[in-house]
Design a protein that fits this description.
By secondary structure, this protein is an alpha+beta fold. It has six helices and five strands. The radius of gyration is 28 Å and the shape is elongated.
Length: 177
């Protein structure tokens, strides 16, 4: 299908917009896919907070150059490009799952905050826990010293209170008998 110069300009502008908005751009090579397979993959990517598009490599290269992404080594052969607008790790998980043991998909690599990352780096990103769990872990690490400090400060008073309680119970026991 031939595109007019005006239509190509619109596509490039859309690619640039997505490149600037996304935290990560991941690229897979695809072979012999049906529209049903592509639509299923798109649905999974949408659940992860991203979008995936069959890209025209020459137009995407121009958009990447305009967006300041000068290394375009992953734009060869067929390209299915995913844009992570919220959580890069979630999109990486979807791409990693799709490419595991697949003859249809092959993970090429991608770009994280505009810098190229290899396919192995995308797989490592996919192994990270989800963002809410990472935040909870970080909060736990930050709160642990404060909790230990409070326990250390309160412990002497707790021990004194335990001794007084034991002494009062000892005195109360003979009076009851």
């Amino acid at each position: 299908m031939a595109f007019t110069k005006e239509h190509k300009g619109e596509i490039i502008a859309q690619y640039e917009k997505w490149l600037r908005q996304s935290k990560a751009v991941l690229i897979v090579e695809y072979n012999h896919m049906t529209m049903k397979e592509i639509d299923g993959f798109r649905a999974k990517v949408r659940e992860a907070g991203g979008q995936v598009h069959v890209a025209k490599n020459t137009l995407l290269k121009i958009a990447m150059e305009n967006a300041g992404m000068h290394d375009q080594k992953y734009l060869e052969k067929t390209s299915l490009v995913g844009f992570a607008f919220s959580d890069a790790a979630a999109l990486a998980k979807v791409f990693n799952e799709a490419t595991k043991n697949s003859e249809v998909f092959k993970l090429k690599g991608g770009y994280l905050d505009g810098r190229p990352v290899k396919a192995q780096d995308v797989k490592s990103l996919a192994e990270l826990p989800p963002l809410p769990i990472m935040r909870a872990r970080l909060l736990g690490v930050l709160l642990a010293p404060a909790t230990k400090t409070v326990r250390t400060l309160v412990e002497p008073a707790r021990q004194v209170a335990a001794v007084i309680k034991a002494y009062s119970e000892k005195e109360a026991a003979p009076a009851a008998g």
